Fold this protein.
Amino acid sequence: DYKPAPGAKKASLTALKAKREAPILDTGDGEGLAAAIAAENEEAKAIAKEKEKKRIAEQKAAFDSQSIPARPTTALRQRQIKDEGKEVVISGMKLPEKKAERKNRKKSSKGFSKIVKSILKEVELADSRYIPMFELVPLTPYQVYARTFRTSGLGIAGVQAGSDAVAIETQTEPDGSADAICQAPEDFGMRRKAIASDETDPLHGTVASKFDFDEGKEAMRLAAFLERASQACEELLEEADKNFAAKKESAPPNKFASSCVNLECDSLLEGREVKSVSFSVDGEYACACYGTATRGKVPEGARDGLACVWKVADPGFPTKFLCCGLEPSTCCFGGDKDHFIVSGTEAGTICLWDTREAASHHRTLESGGRVVTLREPSFHSDGLHGQNHTSRVSRIAPCSSSSQGGDSSMGVRGSVASMEEFARVTIWTIIEMDTSSTSTTDLSLAPLGRVKLVRLSSIDFTSGFPRPWTSSHTPDVTHAVRALDLSIPLGTNSLFVGVDSGAVLHSTSYGEALPPSRLRLPDACFGCAGVTAVDVNPLIPTLLAVGASDGSVCIYSTKRSALVHSWIDACNNPVACIRWSPKRPYTFFVFDNLHYIYVWDLMQSTSGALLGEKIGSSGVSGKFHVPLSFNLGSSSTKTMLVIGYDSGSVELHTLQSEYTTAKKDQRHKFKKLYS
């Protein structure tokens, strides 16, 4: 702290008082005023120098009176500088100045803290809430689901306004409207006519447009007719070529076939295995379902299972491509209609397609230079809670609609039966609706779909047999019955199911089941072989042909519940499929797992097969099917069988007449003998 010398303060006050009492200089004398200001500045500088010298002298005296302690860590700090003529500086700062700076810092920090405390006392939170975060009520699943909608799921319940709210009416100008010119093509469904407008406003113009929808409908009807007739025109042009059929057919590769046609396949079918093949009831169309693509380049979205439809009279490019979305296991045409196709999958789903739907409702892709329409199912059973199959669908077959008492006027278009691997058969009815579907509750029906499946009944053939999913996992439960094939005679409600325990189970789709309830294999093969194929004679429904896994073939009479014929080890391999001839009641065909086909003629010989021959050089996958026509006596319908190969190709074999036609006397004789 600076303390002036005695008498200095009094002298400075006296000098200042003298200056104040001095007369004011004349502002007009500029030189005198400048000299006075310069003299005053010199005097102020002299006073400041005198004060600075006194302050330095006092600091030096205070420093001399103190001792600087020794610091052994640094040689520079150990030196004690004593110089009477120079100022003492340690660490770049004079010691008294350093102490003064510390005091000033303490004072400034104390003052700032006081200011902050006074401000904090004045500041208060306008709105504060304390929420215990770990005591909130847990959200329900619906609340979590509703949060995904954010503000879209909110609605205004009401509006509350203050008492000073005032409603003021406003008046706006009416919106103006005027006619304008619009051009549209004539096939757009309307025709433009330019007419004079009543408007005289130059902003709106003087010409307007008028559309005549009645005359435009003619163009719409013409376009719809051409779309439907295009396919018929192509067929007529192909039939005009005399050599067209000859180009398609090849030499018969087998003794039992008169001709063979290889169905043309698309690149989408490369690398797929044929799962099942089937004919329509009238024999005009053939259908084959394929598994998922395992090799080859497949367009995106087409790797899942597919089903293709060919026209037998024109075995060229497939007419329809059906996308399953899952791994299909079997397929058939629904009821007596060739535009309904039903498929079962490995997961237990039933899919239904209506091939009459417009192609614009489905997605398209380019394959092999052609635009292909992939049709999604019109209906699938995944949305039917508690009604879907729980295991693989091993067989699906059409049922007789008359046995179900269906009425076409009520929308019933046929019925099918699906059998899952664990011997449960479900009867479905195909219902066609008047309008396209816009339902938001039926999750099984596709948008704009018009057909659906309705479950009529479900028959469980596993009574008395343990099932792995329902029985306890105990050591004594080591086997479960598995259904391998299903046969449904046309015109009846009987169901025959072949199981791996060596028996054929019989039941009905509705009503009380008639005997026999079970047919067993002969004692020589019962217990060691399963029934892998069954088929009911279409001309004599009381005759049942059965094929076993050990190669045995049996003929049963369901009327007498007795075994008529049996051929133990007739085939060297397990029987894959057995089918009766649709027009020759005493002839049937047997197909084994090593691709051998056998032909039996019971009128010529009952000791064994008349013919046995291997089909194709590559492995055959799946089963072959013989079409069943409504008019069995017509000679115009050829009896054909379809065979699918591992490579994905499908062949149509036309059977020779000696295996498909029967004389009237032989037919009556056989019926009298075996009925």
User: Anything to note?
Assistant: Residues 346 and 392 are 4 Å apart (CA to CA). Helices lie at 8-21, 30-64, 75-78, 95-122, 141-147, 213-240, 244-248, 664-674.
